[in-house]
Design a protein that fits this description.
Helix content: 40-55%
CATH topology: Rossmann fold
Strand content: 5-15%
CATH superfamily: NAD(P)-binding Rossmann-like Domain
Number of strands: 7
Number of helices: 9
CATH architecture: 3-Layer(aba) Sandwich
Largest sheet: 7 strands, parallel
Structural class: alpha/beta
Shape: globular
Distance between the termini: 38 Å
Length: about 260
């Protein structure tokens, strides 16, 4: 358990990739604070599971990622109750699929706030504790859409490209302080977020559900299969190791070959 004594704060972690991160880091002994929305009893079950797995503390914070004050309070709560955070994983995200000339302004604002601006706010709030310890890991969930674009996802493409750029800036600023910052760029992972965008894509492109899965989602992934949550989480775990200390400012693809094309 090489993360014993470390604390991880993971946004957007009550389902999908975020919960996968939490489970994987807890299995190596990290105390974990999770964040997100969902059924209260289900979330309480996750907290109990994580505490049992890690043998360390686990907490939940319902901070709204569109509200900077709540984000700062979440980081402060993590520090007060669990310590750190030593590891920050920015994973919160939403999606909307629509042609740009029909794209709702409120959806644009929400996607940029939850994906990009929240990453700025959490990073700024978490860095002082990392600097004080001389060790830290900032891992941002990007996407292949941090590197390439797809139609009908203007806000998501813009936000994920922004996350990759922000990560590079942070990596340069803390390069001599024992802190790394990297972006993980998954291809399509079967999560509630991906499943939820299928109806909008069906509407935008006039396709059936099966056509969206095979001809849109998996079309660009040469392996023709979804990336797994476990594969993404395993990379995050490696980035927490001392052996990964020279990896910083990178956008690391886990995309079944998408960006090799």
């Amino acid at each position: 358990m090489f993360l014993r004594g470390k604390t991880a704060l993971i946004t957007g972690s009550t389902s999908g990739i975020g919960l996968g991160y939490a489970r994987t880091l807890a299995a190596e002994g990290a105390a974990v604070m999770i964040n997100g929305f969902g059924d209260a009893a289900e979330i309480a079950g996750y907290v109990a599971e994580l505490a049992q797995t890690s043998g360390a503390g686990a907490r939940y914070c319902a901070a709204d990622m569109t509200k900077p004050a709540e984000i700062r309070d979440m980081v402060a709560l993590c520090h007060a109750e669990l310590g750190g955070p030593d590891i920050l994983i920015n994973n919160a995200g939403i999606q909307h699929v629509s042609p740009i000339d029909e794209f709702p302004e409120e959806k644009w604002d929400a996607i940029l706030a939850i994906i990009l601006s929240s990453t700025f706010h959490t990073t700024g709030a978490a860095l002082p504790a990392m600097k004080a310890k001389g060790w830290g890991r900032i891992i941002n969930t990007g996407s292949m859409h941090s590197l390439v674009a797809s139609p009908y996802k203007s806000a998501y493409n813009a936000a994920k490209h922004g996350v990759a750029g922000l990560t590079k800036t942070v990596a340069l600023e803390v390069a001599t302080l024992g802190i790394t910052a990297n972006t993980i760029c998954p291809g399509y992972v079967w999560t509630p977020l991906v499943e939820g965008q299928i109806p909008d894509t069906m509407k935008a492109r006039g396709l059936t559900r099966e056509q969206v899965i095979n001809d849109v989602l998996l079309d660009k992934q040469p392996q023709k299969q979804f990336v797994t949550i476990e594969q993404v989480a395993a990379l995050a775990l490696f980035l927490c190791r001392d052996e990964a200390g020279a990896i910083t400012g990178a956008a690391l693809s886990v995309d079944g070959g998408w960006t090799a094309q």
